[in-house]
Each structure stands twice: as C-alpha cells, then as structure tokens.
Design a protein that fits this description.
About 55% of the residues lie in helices and about 0% in strands. With about 220 residues, the protein is mainly alpha-helical. Helix 4 packs parallel to helix 6, helix 6 packs parallel to helix 8 and helix 12 runs parallel beside helix 14. The radius of gyration is 25 Å and the shape is elongated.
C-alpha cells in the first residue's frame, strides 16, 4: 500500500465508530491530524482528552476545544493556547467552562474570541463584557437578564449607535433613557425605542398626535 493510500486508510480508521478509544492514541503519533472519532464526542475518556490537549496538531485541538463534557484541566490547558481559533472554539462550550477559564477568555486579546464568548457564555461574564472596548461585544450584553441597572443606563447612552440600538428595546430601560432614545440621531435606534413595550401608552398617543395622525388617546 502506497504512503498516500495508507494515510487515507488511517484517516478512515480515526472516524471508524468501531475503533476502541485506546487505539486513537497511536493516530496522534502519525501525521494524520484531527480525524478523531465523532462517536466519542459525548463520552470521550478523560485520559484521552488530556492526551489530545497535549497534541501539537491544531486540527485535533480545534475538535477537542468544541467537545462537551471535558475535564476542567483540559479547558485550562486550552484557554491560553496561542492559536485564537482554538480559543474561540472553546467558547462554544462556554456554559461548561470553570469560572477561572471564563475569566481568561473575558480578557482575551482577540476581540473575535470575546465576541464569541458573549454569544455563547452564560449570563455571568456578560456584565464584564458589557464594558468591552469593542462595540460588537457591548451590543450583546442585553442577553444578560440580570445586567446591573448602572450598566444598562450606561450602554443606553453609548457613543456607538449599534450599542444604543441594542438597548433601546430593553424592557428594564428607565423611562428617561427610553424617551431620550426616541429622539436619537440614529433613525434605527429611535425606531427600536418606539417598539419598546415599556413605552407608556400616553407617550405613544403623544407621538401619534404630534405626527398629526389623529386625536390623542385619553
């Protein structure tokens, strides 16, 4: 069997659902990265996960980082990995990550990693991400139902229109901030404020009357 064909046979073995877990180890020692058995995703043995985490093959690490039910030590090994692609793949299992690993990812130097974390993380880290320098991350903060009032008000007056727009429809937005957003220079932000269900009916009626569209609702 030629080396090219042999390589493909090994890749096939790596995805064979009948391959025992212990036989995956030798595949890490050859130059056939990443074609690990998908059937092990839900029940990957801890010892094998730890060996995968020490692999130099990025394809293996990318697969591993997005695999659920990993030991905390594997998460800790992957969180500071120099390849951003490995770190952002780790955010896909953010709801399983220990707090210290979330702390590492919240301050990741790559804004895309922080953005993915804001999408996938449980509410806890979002309060910290709400103060992120990247507006694409700040605008995701409304996902946190317990976002502190001070941050809510701060983000409703954010210098970036896309952030203000994300908060214009927030049901906990204080009325004074909501009224200010109705007059926002960004038309789509003002539109989002008009669609906020917390807007008092009296204010709705005033807006309609001001537009000359009919009598004010009493």
């Amino acid at each position: 069997m030629g080396s090219h064909a042999h390589r493909h046979v090994l890749r096939g073995l790596g995805s064979n659902p009948a391959l025992p877990a212990e036989l995956l180890r030798p595949l890490l020692e050859c130059k056939v990265p990443g074609r690990v058995a998908a059937h092990l995703r839900e029940n990957l043995p801890d010892w094998l996960a730890e060996e995968f985490a020490a692999s130099e093959h990025e394809e293996v690490l990318l697969w591993l980082a997005g695999t659920p039910n990993l030991p905390a030590e594997v998460h800790r090994a992957l969180a500071p990995h120099p390849e951003a692609a490995v770190r952002w793949r780790l955010t896909r299992v953010a709801d399983e990550l220990p707090p210290d690993v979330l702390d590492v990812l919240v301050t990741d130097p790559d804004s895309q990693v922080r953005q993915f974390l804001a999408k996938y993380a449980p509410a806890g880290p979002l309060a910290r991400l709400a103060e992120d320098p990247d507006p694409r991350i700040r605008e995701l903060a409304p996902r946190d139902p317990e976002l502190p009032d001070g941050l809510l008000e701060e983000l409703a007056t954010d210098p970036e229109a896309r952030v203000r727009r994300a908060f214009a429809g927030h049901p906990r937005l204080p009325l004074t901030y909501l009224l200010a957003l109705l007059a926002d220079d960004d038309a789509r932000t003002a539109e989002a404020a008009g669609g906020n269900p917390s807007l008092p009916v009296s204010e709705m009626a005033r807006i309609i009357a001001a537009a000359g569209l009919g009598k004010s609702v009493e």
